[in-house]
Amino acid sequence: METSVDIILLNYNTQPMLKNCIKSIEKHTKFSYRLIIIDNNSQDESKKYLNRLRKKDMTLVYNKKNLGVSKAWNQGIKKGKGKYILFLNPDTLVSPNWLTKIVHCVESDKKIAVVGTKQINEKGRIVHGGILEKNGRRINRGFGQKNSPNKFNKICDCVTVWGACLLIKRENIPIIGYFDEQYFMYAEETDYTFRARLLGFRVVYCPVTITHFVEGSPINDDERRKIHQRSSNILLEKKRLISPKVLKSSKLIKGEKPEIYLVHGGEKHLIPNKSIIDRLNLNNKNIKTLPQKQVDRIPTGIIIYI
């Protein structure tokens, strides 16, 4: 029988946390699952630990370099067959019956495409309770507040949820797509939830508590800030480009090669799939064919992947 949930754990030099995370999954998970562990070329004791851990209900992938989050998550998706796909950070500990509750939540409405959870730190303070939007401002519910069982104890629609514990449906991959691999780290889940909502799906918070140590991989603060800023810039540019006002003033071009680009602000932005043209309500007949050399001379911007 097909496994119901593929749990994808992405590891990069986090062996002690990974070990505790897997122990908590084994202890608190009654629902049918398969572990898919992607190691992004860890240099600590991770590989030694994982090789000892090998089990029948586990898939291990060792990358030769650090591919970042989106590429590794997509690897994990393609390695599995489960009806649901759950991404879990190695710096987390799960709670009793966590997965059963999350699956019940996603199955409560066919329009639910993404489910996130409550996340608390080791001091019992909430670090994530779902992201809402009010007057154009993003609000992380409950951030810094002391957790209690009755706090944020109902399903709630959100604009986005954190990827430290995130469930999606495999059946929606052909519709929403995979994670955008332009993001090395940060904003990949925000991008996915943005695309899901754009297509009419729901993104919800589920009242399941996960302990999240918010340590992550050992990347220095300066590098982390740079990665975060780059990811934020990609997301903001994508949102700007697919706004009705910008699309109306843009044009579609192609050269002798099959690639189609949206040109705006003096830059060409690759549209990697013709179905995206339909999703954006762009007229396929208005694609202007130019000499390839002319297309190549236009500065390249981001990929418009939705």
Ends: how far apart? 33 Å
Q: Decide which structural class fits the backbone.
A: alpha/beta
Give the low-confidence spans: none
Whole-angstrom Rg: 20 Å
* Backbone shape: globular
Features:
single chain, 306 residues, alpha/beta, ten-stranded mixed beta sheet, four-stranded mixed beta sheet, 10 helices, 31% helix, globular
What does the model show?
The chain is an alpha/beta fold. Helices cover 31% and strands 26% of the residues. It contains 10 helices and 16 strands. It has helices at residues 15-28, 46-53, 69-79, 98-106, 173-176, 188-198, 221-241, 244-248, 274-279, 292-297, and strands spanning 5-11, 33-39, 58-62, 84-88, 92-93, 112-120, 126-128, 131-134, 137-140, 156-157, 165-169, 202-212, 251-254, 260-264, 267-271, 288-289. The chain is globular and about 60 Å long. The two termini are 33 Å apart.
Brief overview:
This protein is an alpha/beta fold and 306 residues long. It has helices at 15-28, 46-53, 69-79, 98-106, 173-176, 188-198, 221-241, 244-248, 274-279, 292-297, and strands at residues 5-11, 33-39, 58-62, 84-88, 92-93, 112-120, 126-128, 131-134, 137-140, 156-157, 165-169, 202-212, 251-254, 260-264, 267-271, 288-289. Strands 1, 2, 3, 4, 5, 6, 7, 10, 11 and 12 form a ten-stranded mixed sheet that branches.
